[in-house]
């Protein structure tokens, strides 16, 4: 058995959750915040048997798409912020960051 931790952008979370329910995967959904863009994310905790991991990864990949987004950087800390002119920067957001961890024991009460 494995524990899958999938961090996805909020825009993809409902679509992923619906797909997981449809395929009968049980998941715990947690609100989280990314450090770089300080934007909302959703973290899914999913316990799954080893043989079901390839299908689960395919579901995550199908429902969590990367896309480009314009972001205005925050002003630098310290230094001369008066001359700092923030120009929007295009960054890639979305997709999913997935961790697969071994599970020694599982219990449900």
Which spans of ≥5 residues are poorly predicted at pLDDT below 50?
none
Q: Helix-strand pattern, N to C?
A: EHEEHEEE
Name the shape in a single word: elongated
Specify the structural class: alpha+beta
Tell me the span between the first and last alpha carbons.
18 Å
Largest sheet: 4 strands, antiparallel
* Annotation field: number of helices: 2
Radius of gyration: 18 Å
Output mean pLDDT: 85
Relative strand content: 35-45%
Give the strand line-up of the largest sheet.
2-3-1-6
Number of strands: 6
Helix content: 10-25%
Features:
6 strands; elongated; 2 helices; two-stranded antiparallel ribbon; single chain; 109 residues; alpha+beta
Account of the protein in words:
The chain is an alpha+beta fold. The protein is 22% helix and 39% strand. It contains 2 helices and 6 strands. A 4-stranded antiparallel beta sheet has the order 2-3-1-6. It has a two-stranded antiparallel ribbon with strand order 4-5. A hairpin with a 6-residue loop joins strand 2 and strand 3. Helix 1 (10-22) crosses helix 2. The longest helix is centred in the first third of the chain and has 13 residues, at 10-22. It is elongated and about 60 Å long.
């Amino acid at each position: 058995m494995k524990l899958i931790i999938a961090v996805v952008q909020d825009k993809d979370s409902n679509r992923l959750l619906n797909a997981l329910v449809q395929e009968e995967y049980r998941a715990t959904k947690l609100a989280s915040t990314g450090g770089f863009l300080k934007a909302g994310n959703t973290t899914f905790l999913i316990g799954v048997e080893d043989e079901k991991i390839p299908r689960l990864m395919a579901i995550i990949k199908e429902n969590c798409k990367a896309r480009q987004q314009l972001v205005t950087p925050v002003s630098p800390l310290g230094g001369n912020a008066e001359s700092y002119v923030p120009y929007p920067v295009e960054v890639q957001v979305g997709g999913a960051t997935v961790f697969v961890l071994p599970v020694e024991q599982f219990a449900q009460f």
